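Attaching the record inline, Q. Sequence:
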Amino acid sequence: MDTIDLRSDTVTWPTPDMREAMANAPVGDDVYGEDPLINELEAESAALLGKEAGLFVSSGTQGNLIAALTHCQRSEEMIVGRQAHMFRYEAGSAAAFGGIQPHIIDVQPDGTLPLDEIRHAIRGDDPHFPRTRLIGLENTQGTIGGIPITADYTAQVGAIAREHGLKLHIDGARIFNAAAALHTTAKELVAPADSVSFCLSKGLCAPVGAMLVGSRDFIHEARRTRKALGGGMRQAGILAAAGLVAIRSMTERLADDHANARILAAGLAAIPGLQVNLSAVQTNMIFFDLLETAPVTPEAFRERLKQDYNIIVSPYPGYVRHFRAVTHYWITRERVNQVIAAVQAILA
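Structure, as predicted:
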């Protein structure tokens, strides 16, 4: 990967081991349940997260949508964070395709939804109200800095869900980053959840795909939902081969990305013209602001990094001076130092 691309960990290329595994992958028809590597990936993913069964899906967004459509009926409601990916960045898909109404709660700086507000959001049995069916959490909470959510907090949300007969879904796009940051296992972090999605194609470097895991009954219904969305794939073992490398070898190295993120954040924080909240850098994301006092505009800043140093950054969606940088497998310590030096030169 020649370019230093800090926009997201979605830009990761597959590793050499993944490319080799894909080239040699045995395949079958997954819609018939006959692709050996898909079956292997689904079983291993479920076991890794302590669930009974798994389903390979095209993306984390599709996994979240399938979960919502499987848990909820039309005119029912799911409780999610205002800053959650499911609400902000998935094109209103649960409402568009399932008639599912989001009930929005503000996400706190620590990535959590206030427990009292979750309780307050649960509807009573009144014909005027939609029925509450689902609580959605995100771990890590990406939109506020990749903040990891603890097992203790999730257990409390799970208890609320059980008390009220609700389901709990975790958008675990980066759940293994959370596990690395909290020095625990992904299995422990999602123990109370009825369903969990996680991405293979972000920090785990697979080229395509995500996993959805849950009970056997849930996955049985989710498979039907995937088919209805056009998500049934045929000889998908070529993709599963990369996914197996991802869950077997890439999850254990994410702490390196976190260490590089902290070094990058500290380096940027020392440069006049930038503002970085160092305490918020807990996984592989750094958010920083290009101050009005900086000697370049945001557009010039981006353009000079790209043209002069082959470095790509971009403002976070909806912002002009607020940037996000994400470390991943292809952002080595050497490249972190190159980025710091380039930014210093541009802002000198």
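The chain has a mean pLDDT of 97. The longest helix spans residues 254-269.

More tomorrow.
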